[in-house]
Fold this protein.
Amino acid sequence: MKLSKFYKSKIGKEYVQNIDRRYRENFENMIDSIEGDNWTKKQKKKQKSSIIPILALYKTFIDFGFSKEDAKELSRLWIYNTSEKAHKILYKTFNFPKFEKIFRFIFRKGLEADEIWISKTIESDDEALKVDITKCLWKDTCDYFNCPELCEVFCSADWVVFGDIDRLEFNRSETLGTKGDKCDFRFRFK
């Protein structure tokens, strides 16, 4: 979906006309910026697909003269829209028998990429999955582009993805993106 279509009723007409072009420019500039730096190939791939699109959107709103708080909230709308799609898929898969095992495997497998996250599994059984993340590419990338305040939007999207599933209880008390010492993912299977 084009940004202009998504934001049509949310921002002024003068911004809607230019949002796709300005976003594309910001996105390309940010991609150029990471190409010349010390990011690994795997990190760049994840940045390009999942992180920089939101950072470029945030920068676009800032360029348009929106306050940081308004730009952050407008960016949150986009990421929540994307997160709701992931939630729907996850919600359906929890109807499979023994999905707890599959969920634990996929979640922990995803965290094995130490270039993306540094994590420690605290508990993993048929009742719960508890993982602490002490280093996160989303946080590092937000810091790199001087917008650490936007990392909280990524963190809050986890509530959209993992929340409101009958057989899964998701809790977290802190995140790196909200100035915590870690991201403490706590899942309880019901």
The longest helix spans residues 68-93. The chain has a mean pLDDT of 94.
